[in-house]
Protein: Phage tail sheath protein FI
Amino acid sequence: MSYQTPGVYVEESNALSLGIQSGQTAVPVFVGHFDAINNGAVPAVQCVRIDSWLSFTQQFASDSSQTFSIDYVSIDNKIVAHGTYLGAASVRMFIENGGGVCYVLPVNDFKKAIQYIGPAIDLCPDITLLCWCEHRSEDDDQSIVNELGKLTGSANSGGMQSRFLLIDAALKNNTVAVPAVVAPHHAAAYFPALRTAYRYTANIEAVVLKGFDKSSHKLRSLLNIKELRERCDDNLKKLSDAEVGVKKFAMDVKSAAEAEKITLEAFSWDTMFTSLHAIKDSVDTSDSDAVAKSYEKLKEKISEKTDSKTFKLLPAFKKLIDDYQTLCREEVLPDQELLKTVIKLANEPVVLRASVAMAGVYARTDRERGVWKAPANVELSSVTGLVAVDIGNKTVSDIRIDDVFNETLVKNKVNAIRAFSGRGHVVWGARTMAGPSETAWRYVSVRRLFSTVERDVQDALRVAIFEPNSQPTWVSVRLAISHYLHRLWQDKALTGATPAEAYFVRVGLHETMTEEDVNNGRMLVSIGLAAVRPAEFIVLQLTQDMGAT
Structure:
């Protein structure tokens, strides 16, 4: 500063200067199974920051090639796919629905890792959304929800108020089941699950088949689809060779019959050769009996002359036919059917929790409109259908959410994902799990707006700690918070025609503090917000004016 006239000049250095900046509002952590790419080593139970899909693929496997398998289950002789490791697909779904920065928390050893979830997340204060990725048992899901719920900021948890929990409802014997949460107004539930455009692995041929040595197929315990396909090719070659043998012997029988002038119906030979060809090409059990029937017709015809050379050839011919059919029924057909089944299972689409897609919707809505905008009436990407996971019957089935079913979900405090013609799959709910009496915290956008304000103000006021608890400090705090809230009002986050109607900030002696508070080093700041709420119900009142001309 240049001094031009005589006088007294005062310069203040290191004076208290407050400014409140808005931080990131939608940074999720995905808790689930993640396969590290460093020679398959199990990752430590710690949060890993992910800035992009490229960042993720440089540290973790992008599909479930290492862990996806198909197993023969002895109960009810079922063949099932094990594709419960959904961490990578969940991160991808988050990013494709508008998400940006996130964290992943590997809990590959579920029973041992669950106790470390809370401490690991607490080390990352910028995490604001909590998501569980996997489909496990009802008890395991509830255990995870309990651990994550402790971090959302209920009165007894000691957690941060800015964290918000996303969970999923399911069906339990055709009844809507919702996990219990510690702080209902810090959580939102969604239903149903999402059938995606993803596959568990890009390398279908390498999918491991387990437990088939227990079945009638008598395969060895560890096999993959490629090896099974090679086995089927070998069986088809054996069948082709057997077909050649049967046809050659049939020609010998026919030649002998012609030499002995035994009249045979052309139908029998045509049926014989046509059936053999059909069995080989289509591997269809419906044609396998035709060969035997043709043989029986030949036997009946030739048996009129039991001493003929032709008739003496029939036992050996019959054995060739029996061997051919045994090969077909006991090896070729079962293996071909098994190959079709496992390939179908290996190509089944990945089913993800709706909450992981909603984390992306939250991030996109916050970025484009603001945290005060309800994350609803938004189309989801990479979703091909809606499915209900029934944890009671252990089934996954297609489902359509209509108005009647949606009413049931609302009563259970669950937000719906619905399919609308011309729009695709749309988020159709914006409520927290707060009870009917907690109307102040009914909406996700309201709860998250207040959490964001709490976090931003808390971060900004740390610089005021150990400052004099006096009027100049109070003024600085009031102005900083007022400027921050004024920006929110200008961005239409707060309702009210004037700033005075939208918010207030109070701090000072005999206003928010007593002499005892000041003497004990307590500075109390009171903030009030008039948050906007979503237009959840739009009612059109239509009348017909019969007297209009």
Q: What stands out?
A: The first strand starts at residue 28 and ends at 32.
